[in-house]
Amino acid sequence: MEQVTDGPMWRAWGILGAGLLFTSYTAVLVALRTRELSMTADLLQDEIDRRRLSEESLYQSRRRIAMVEETLRGEIAEFLHGRIQTRLLIVSHRLGQCEALINGDLARARTLLQEIRDEVDQTPENVT
Predict the structure, then answer these.
(1) Contact (Cβ atoms closer than 8 angstroms) between residue 84 and residue 127
(2) Between 57 and 108, residue with greater pLDDT
(3) Which of 116, 118, 98 is nearest to 107 (CA)?
(4) What are the sequence ranges of the domains in the chain?
(5) Cα gap 94→97, rounded to integer Å
């Protein structure tokens, strides 16, 4: 009597079984790799989002710095053109007075020149 497991039918079933086992094993490996790649993609997306936030924060900081610089420039310009220009106008007016006095009251002109010199010497102290 012929053994039942030796026939071509059993060999076909054995090959089919091995194929199914290999296919199942491969499917599990593919699923694991897909899960791993999905987790990596999520991590990369999180990193991209974090860097975008950092980039936006850096952009906002630079914008605030530029605004503060512009405000400071304006304040400095106002200070220089305000206080210093006013002092220079006063000195200029007093020099005009002195010039008018040179031909008439030389002593008063000298006194006025000394006052103007003192005013000019004090300007750096009053500006700071």
Answers:
(1) yes
(2) 57
(3) 98
(4) 9-127
(5) 5
